[in-house]
Amino acid sequence: MSYIITNIRDRFTSADMTMKLIFINAGVYVFLAFLQVFAKITGLHGFMLDQWVALPSDWHLVLMHPWTLITYSFVHANFLHLLFNMLWLYFFGPIFEYLYSARAMVGLYIVGEIFGAVFFILMYNTIPYFMTNYATLVGASAAILALVLAVSTAQPNRVIRLLFIGDVKFKYLAIGLIVMDVLLLTDNNGGGHLAHLGGALAGYLFALQMSRGRDITNWVNWLIDRVVNLSKIFKHTPHIKVSRGGKFDQKPYNKHKDDLNYNEHKKANEASIDKILDKVRKSGYNNLTDKEKRQLFDASKQ
Length: 302
What we know:
There is one protein chain. The chain is mostly helical and 302 residues long. It has 2 domains: 2-231, Up-down Bundle (Rhomboid-like fold); 242-300. The protein has helices at residues 2-14, 17-42, 47-53, 59-64, 68-71, 79-99, 102-124, 128-131, 141-154, 170-183, 190-211, 218-228, 231-234, 255-283, 290-300; strands at 55-56, 136-137, 159-162, 166-169. A hairpin with a 3-residue loop joins β3 (159-162) and β4. α6 crosses α7 and α9 runs parallel beside α11. The chain is globular, with a radius of gyration of 22 Å. The two termini are 35 Å apart.
């Protein structure tokens, strides 16, 4: 048992941020599944999910359980719900990490879920059609739609190959998802589609502001750094050789030469990554070689 736990921990530690989020969502799903089995046996079925981790549409209840603004996006109604969300995350996560960073991904994931939650609560407490109903919200869709819209806004003309459809530009995929959510607002999952729209808005604003040099997720990561010291995940300690006298042993360097070498290396690396991303769009991530996957992963951490 300890070997399994150690193996899972090591895989989580070495994974990129996309896989970390998938690990967390899957882990929460399994944990809550065990809790539900226990709840059924003890006669408390549904108590934990509905009252403590799902987001209620009644703003009075949200004030009593404010943590649900965050927890709802790590909870899924069933396995298929989890699977489809994680597939979207698995595909768009690495692209987002390459365009921006793993740190920005965490920030937008949380901002996206908050936008989705606020939009959901706002509509259910102001629009007559929704005010007549009480609903709860679960799922990572709003957070993932934020990532999708950010990628689509930053790279609108990049192409993705969809099953049974063919090549589609990111901008048309984003528009299609938004239109579909609007058209489905009156179905049984109207609350979920409201949250999708909120998350999509967060992703669009993120990409728009990033193009102007402003990161709207900075405050989220600042809070995370203070609460759980998340900065250690992204901190890379340079290798420094120390002499016996206790002083740093640093080699002299030619700054102009180093700059030229760096720029040449960066240009070659970017060209190589572009080829890998083109291959992902045309044939999917799973068709990459191990070397290409490792190269894409390394680039996402920069």
